[in-house]
Amino acid sequence: MALRISIRTLLLLMGLLTPGPAQVPVPAAAPRGFWALPENLTVVEGAAAELRCGVSAPGSAVQWAKDGLLLGPDPRIPSFPRYHLEGDPTKGEFHLHIEACDLSDDAEYECQVSRSETGPELVSPRVILSVLVPPRVLQLTPEAGSTVTWVAGQEYEVSCVSGDAKPAPDITFLRSGQTISDISSNVNEGSQEKLFITKATARVTPQSSDNGQLLVCEGSSPALDTPIKVSVTMNVLFPPGPPVIEWPGLDEGHVRAGQNLELLCTARGGNPPATLQWLKNGQPVSTAWGTEHAQAVARSMLVMIVRPEDHGARLSCEAQNSVSTGIQERGVTLQVTFPPSAITILGSASQSENKNVTLSCITKSSRPRVLLRWWLGWRQLQPTEETVMDGLHGGHISMSNLTFPARREDHGLSLTCEAFSEAFAKETFKKSLTLNVKYPAQKLWIEGPPEGQRLRAGTRVRLVCLAIGGNPDPSLTWYKDSRPVTEPRQPQEPRRVQLGSLEKSGSTFSRELVLVTGPSDNQAKFTCKAGQLSASTQLVIQFPPTNVTILANASALRPGDAVNLTCISVSSNPPVNLSWDKEGERLEGVAATPRSAPFKGSSAARSVLLRMSSRDHGHRVTCRAHSTELQETVSAFYSLNVLYPPEFLGEQVLVVTAVERGEALLPVSVSANPAPEAFNWTFRGYRLSPAGGPRHRILSGGALQLWNVTRADDGLYQLHCQNSEGTAEALVRLDVHYAPIIRNLQDPTEVNIGGSVDIVCTVEANPVLPGMFNWERLGEEEEDQSLEDMEKMSEGSTGRLRIQHAKLSQAGAYQCIVDNGVAPPARGLVRLVVRFAPHVEHPTPLTKVAAAGDSTSSATLHCRARGVPNIIFTWTKNGVPLDLQDPRYTEHTYHQGGVHSSLLTIANVSAAQDYALFTCTATNPLGSDHTNIQLVSISRPDPPSGLKVLSITPYSVGLEWKPGFDGGLPQSFQIRYEALETPGFLYVDVQPPQATTFTLTGLQPSTRYRVWVLASNALGDSGLAVKGSQISITTPGLHQPSGEPDYQLPTEEPAGPSGLPLLPVLFAVGGLLLLSNASCVGGFLWHRRLKRLAQGISEKTDAGSEEDRVRNEYEESQWTGDRDTRSSTVSTTDAEPFYPSMRDFSPQLPPTLEEVSYPRGLEEEAMAFPGHLYDEVERLYAPPGAWGPLYDEVQMGPYDLRWPEDKYEDPRGIYDQVAGDLDPMEPDTLPFELRGHLV
């Protein structure tokens, strides 16, 4: 009751407080109540729903409640974005519209009307909005979309589970389109409240007809327009049908041997299709088969050549698959018909005339049997006996015997045995022999050269033996002196005899014998025989001796011995004449009487006597046997072997040249017999090992090979040769050439200016050549490398470069180059130091040094001089020698070649004591020089000088100038210029501030300008100098050539027309605004800077720089002790280059008109300073006038002792390596009040 009262109270308050369409207007005398009530509604998830509510309740608020939760009277229902009220409130329409319903909208709803003055609250009956949720998926086991393999006739279980749904879906199963009745279903709660899951299980027994069909799970629900389905494909396995053999022809099993038998076995049905194989008598013969899956047919073709042994064989085809319970088989038995595979005739068909011939004819097994008959030519012969026997493979063997007499007229006829049968009517099987009847020949003779004809050895002779008649063919055999003639059996033997084969022409037979005649054929008898018949012929052959033999009475010969040589020639026909010669020189000999020799020839002999010398060793003594009739000569030689001791030949090399670290070969040209047993080399009394060493090897011919030759190997090598007959010696000189090495080169070589000196270069080299010395001067420029006025001389291993009237320009580095042809040439560096008196440099910006005279600051004075030898510096103040024992004075001395520097540091500078003229004196043994440096107070900078034009274009001009004294403070530069036709001046700040070159842009073509350069520091401007800091220029026209320097400076065109009246006005207004802002903060900045000045920062000087190497270097490095433990001398050859700092760099500013420029400082008369302020000023920067690139960039040769007038670089940073000064302070760090002269 309390809840209802609170709800009603809430409805009343909401009706009173909430304006909007949910409040029913108050019509006059309207009846109160519902004219349209909501009704139960069912929608599918995602669809829209509308609950109607029509109210007649004037002045009341209307809202909906969901499961007791009030949705509020706002028609938009903000808490539920998918809910809103539809209808016309003025008509009492408050229909609840819900978009895209989901399960959360499944609830009870009621329409409520708040209490009003016209009546109490109204509440509609509760209605139910039922949201149907369709099942999204079906989960099938086995997996949906897959293929399941089942065996026909076996039972399987399938389950299907639905997804979340409302209400629970119905599940049915279909197999091959037919509903399965054996289904069990269960409904379970889903993943959310009000959702349900249905699980159904079916039991399936597939049949062969279900193969390839679908098993479908179908889910239906009121929330679905059409059921959802999932399925699997059934692969049902079942056995194939029985095999069938297709037999070609009508008589199954009857075949003939040799037939190509093709049998097709077919098995239909089955999954998988059947596996087929052929067996022969139970043994597999073919396991190949093919499958047509569309018709589920398996086929296997057996192809075989039928053989006789296949008679009675059983061929069978077997079919089965993986689910077959047994093997299905179909078979056939072969009945093979085959003829005899061969016919054989036993016995010989060759027989002598008038004798009997006996033969037997036998066949191989055949089915059926065959009959035999004999034929001689075309005449049939009667057999004497016939026999039949059992054969292989169920066949029969036939045999027939025959006997008949041999006659000469039957010779050569064909004797045939023929087999025949009705089963092989179209075929005939025969075996034939040729009858051979033997009888003798009738005549025999020889055809060849006539007897008694003389033939020369080597002549080709052809003998032919002929015979007529005879069977078999007569065998013609050749004999030589009763021995059978045969051809040589070894292939390498000369083929002097060619024995032809028996040839037949009609009834005539012949056999040829071809001879290449030789001595053994002389008067030999050649006979041809055929059976009892024979014929003979005889040859006469002329031949020279086959060889000549030389015999000696002694084998070991020595110089002075006599030797008797005898020359004997073997058999020849006719006899020969013998003669002797030695190396072409004819010798006289003694001839012997000819004697009988083999082959019915004769032999001869002749002797000669010789006296030996060493020169005869190896010479040939030749004996020649000459036949005048045959015009042929046979020769033999005897080589003389004379034993003698070693003898060096005239071509023996006595001097060998080699290069150091190379190889050398000392050859040996020696003659000896026998060859030398040993070659012994000796060098400087030491014998070289015959086995070789680390750097030598004795070759087989005695030559000595050396490698990595050194100059120590130069000298005479003694060679000792020895054999069994004696010894010999020779001397070979090895001349080792090696590259020159400089042994003496005086560095440095010193000479006074104007004097004379020799630069001496002494080397060790081989060979020493007259022109091997050369000299070079090292320098960067070509003129620095000139050797004019210098004399080159050489004598032996010493070379000289003579310099007379020495000049400073000749000082520097020289190189002695020695090249004797052996690489590499020797090179030696020597410095020529030209000594000269000191010369102190007087750079204008450094003649003054500024420092605050407050007794707390310090100042550094730089003094730099050139001279050789080293310079000693002394300092005076106002002419009085400076006491360096005073702790306020510290001197550091630096030496770099011929350039010397002295830095005098004054601590606690006092205006009263130290503002004076300091003199630096440089002294060496050749003289002295000095310079004056004024120590002054800090002040405004001096005006720049030397302003000049580097380049000019129609729109820009490149400028360069020399900075003046900076007043002791960092200075910057400003360009002031005016166009002569336009009133007023323009100013441009130089960036970076310390730069001494600048490109002024924004100019107009064909215009005259006047340009000034101004310097300023913290104390003020330098002012305008009368000359030196201003210049007049005229820019060229657009069509005129521009003036260009040696290098191109950057130029740019103006962004727009200059000189417009608006530009000066804008600059003036900007300047006034800057002044007004500066006046507001001036007081704060003044007090802040006074506080910083009072902190007592000590002064440091940027004293490090890079020193150029000078040509007249005197010492590489030198350190001298302090004079008073505070002064030191340092010399260095390398220093870091100076790069201008970019700390002060800022982009280039536009030009400023002079008329409206802001004040650059207060005038001196307007300045008022406390008396102690300037004493506390300390320098945090190196003075821009400090030495640095000033001497490194400006080339000052010893011959030009004046300071350059046309170039001056920023001198900062020369002694960066001496003192670690702090970075320069910004120009504006000095208080505004201190920007002026302090003293």
UniProtKB/TrEMBL annotation:
Query: What species is this protein from?
Result: Catagonus wagneri (Chacoan peccary)
Q: Which domain of life is it from?
A: Eukaryota
Q: A Gene Ontology MF term for this entry?
A: cell adhesion molecule binding
- Domain annotation Ig-like: ranges: 21-124, 135-233, 242-333, 340-434, 440-540, 544-635, 740-821, 838-939
What are its GO cellular component terms?
A: cell projection; cell-cell junction; focal adhesion; plasma membrane
Membrane association type: Single-pass type I membrane protein
Q: Where is the signal peptide?
A: 1-22
Q: Which SUPFAM superfamilies match?
A: Fibronectin type III, Immunoglobulin
Q: What is the lineage of its organism?
A: Eukaryota, Metazoa, Chordata, Craniata, Vertebrata
Query: What transmembrane ranges does the database entry give?
Result: 1062-1086
Where does the record place Basic and acidic residues bias? 1099-1114
Family, according to the entry, reads as follows: Belongs to the immunoglobulin superfamily.
Q: Which UniProt keywords apply?
A: Cell adhesion, Cell membrane, Developmental protein, Disulfide bond, Glycoprotein, Immunoglobulin domain, Membrane, Myogenesis, Phosphoprotein, Repeat, Signal, Transmembrane, Transmembrane helix
Where is this protein found? Cell membrane
Q: Does the keyword Signal apply?
A: yes
Protein name (database record): Nephrin
Q: Which GO terms describe its biological process?
A: cell-cell adhesion; gene expression; glomerular basement membrane development; JNK cascade; myoblast fusion; podocyte development; positive regulation of actin filament polymerization; protein localization to synapse
This protein's record includes keyword Nucleus: no
Biological function:
Seems to play a role in the development or function of the kidney glomerular filtration barrier. Regulates glomerular vascular permeability. May anchor the podocyte slit diaphragm to the actin cytoskeleton. Plays a role in skeletal muscle formation through regulation of myoblast fusion.
